[in-house]
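#lab-general

N.A. 3:47 PM
ok so I finally got the sequence cleaned up, no stray characters, all 119 residues accounted for. can someone with queue access submit it? mine expired

B.Y. 3:52 PM
send it over

N.A. 3:53 PM
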Amino acid sequence: QVQLVESGGGLVQAGGSLRLSCAASERTFSRYIMGWFRQAPGKEREFVASINWSGSSTDYADSVKGRFTISRDDSKNTGYLQMNSLKPEDTAVYYCAAFRNALGQYRYWGQGTQVTVSS
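B.Y. 4:20 PM
back already:
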């Protein structure tokens, strides 16, 4: 069982930046595809970004392309989401996830961290 703990959320003005971290409890984290998702009030959870086990392949939602960057440091069992040029519509609880199966489902999820972008 891998536990994931997000940190780095907070309140920021539009145009600002935040970096989210996702710390994993197990070294096996390095073998897994890792993803970030978000859920705004009254909305369904949506995909933000993902990165493969080696870090050589990334994928982003259209809404964050060019502004967000996903990365990982497996020596620290940690994944990151660098968020620049933040917009009020980026306000949500952000979740990291790991171990994506062939159906695209993630087995492990963190508890989430709140990101609030003021206009």
